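Write out this protein's structure.
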Amino acid sequence: MAQHIDSDRVQRLRLEADWPDWVVWRSTGTLGEPADWYASRRRRLTGGQRRAGVHATVSAETPEELDKVLADQAERDPQRCTRTAAKLA
């Protein structure tokens, strides 16, 4: 179990480094088993962002899928901070 937790932590830290406007975590199922991955924005959304299809919280089954969802959210966000821009800041 400790190895699984360490792997999840590495994945979470990688995603948060790539997407600094998001907080990332992994949920657990009813029996304590690892479940889906989630990311929530660190700031509130404007009405314009919501109308553009930007979400405050997103989810995916794997960290790789979550990375793709976050990339899609960056594309939809009229006030976006892309992964490239975030790394240059």
